[in-house]
Amino acid sequence: MDMDKRIPVTLLTGFLGSGKTTLLNKLLHHPDMRDTAIIINELGDAGLDQIFANSNLAQNIENEHITDNTVLLSSGCLCCTLKNELADTMRDLFFKRALQAIPQFNRLIIETTGMADPGPILANLMNEPVIESVYRLDAVVVTIDSIYGLQQIEENTEALKQAAVADVLVLTKTDLASAEQINALKEKLITINPGATQHKIAHGELDPAFVVDVGLFDLATKHPEPQRWLRAPIKQAQPKGTLPQKTHNDDITSFTVIMPSPLNWSQLKPHLLSFCQKYGKNLLRLKGIIHAADQSAPLAIHAVHFTPYPPTLLEGWTEDEPLSRIVIIGKDLDELEIRKALMQF
Ligand SMILES: Nc1nc2c(ncn2[C@@H]2O[C@H](COP(=O)(O)OP(=O)(O)OP(=O)(O)O)[C@@H](O)[C@H]2O)c(=O)[nH]1
Q1: Where does the secretion signal sit in this chain (predicted)?
Q2: What is the ipTM of this complex?
Q3: I need a labelling partner for 108 at 20 to 30 A (CA). Which of 27, 178, 245, 329 fits?
Q4: How far is the CA of 331 from the centre of ligand 1 (A)?
Q5: Residues having CB within 6 Å of any atom of ligand 1
Q6: All domains in the chain, ordered by first residue
Q7: pLDDT per residue over 207-225, tens digit each?
Q8: Which of 335, 271, 310, 321 is nearest to 135 (CA)?
Q9: Atom 8 in ligand 1: which residue has the minimum CA distance?
């Protein structure tokens, strides 16, 4: 069974004050998280001091020289002014690791600012040849404040986009929120992003197994786990005879398109590229599993906005019912038009 050897990257995002740092801080105390490099994007210079305040991690960091693996980017925002800096930092970390100039790390966590748009950051992770050859996106983890999250999602496009592209939604501060608040938030998140897993936490306490190595490969068994990764949204069936509706402005939708069979990757690949070029503006995320007649194994495909990511060949993985399917998460997309556009190639 083959496995993607690239370094898994967790993108940790979430609206202002939603508990990203608290979660990261707690995660890094866990023994399983020892070999983790971190890139933190903080606006202002409070940075690391604040992150590790009141924890004994700072001490551990000194001892284990993990500081070498921790980079603070504080002079701008990753999704706008610091795009190149993110790529430079990731390359730099990788080359230092290869030269053994810093301790080995087996995963990377990137913590964004609260107002970050994850789309450009994800596209940045995929666009650059060196980066895409040595790193792979494991999961987008999004923290959401159990008290204010609902309001933030309704009032801020950034919060809505963050929730929509998440693989893992972490509902924070449940010690402060009422059961009604938490339930209302959970319901809203299911409508925005039914494919994501949800975890309720307090004070950043969460088993790392729920947020890292949750991507395409199960690191324990080394086997591909594409179904878990795809997490196709389960939607209530449309009443018979009704067609998917066009969404309202700013609405986020998520749906699965079952692709025709048989199909050839040599034909689908250029089609996906032009599909992303046409609908990329509103295409927050595309994930899929493709069973192609001209490939030796199923393919995991992935795109963000205008950028399709190089597919991963899932060697040794089979399905009883080999259905090619693509999950679309987008903003203000006409579901019917998208379905037609994807199928016609
Ligand atoms: N009571 C309680 N407070 C929490 C919890 N999680 C975070 N906080 C507090 O909420 C505040 C914001 O948490 P942070 O972890 O700094 O949030 P953040 O998302 O990193 O914030 P920014 O980087 O400023 O966007 C801090 O004062 C935390 O101590 C929780 O589960 N319960």
Answers
A1: none
A2: 0.98
A3: 329
A4: 28
A5: 14, 16-22, 114, 143, 172-173, 175-176, 202-204
A6: 7-215 (3.40.50.300), 236-343 (3.30.1220.10)
A7: 998 988 777 766 566 677 7
A8: 310
A9: 19
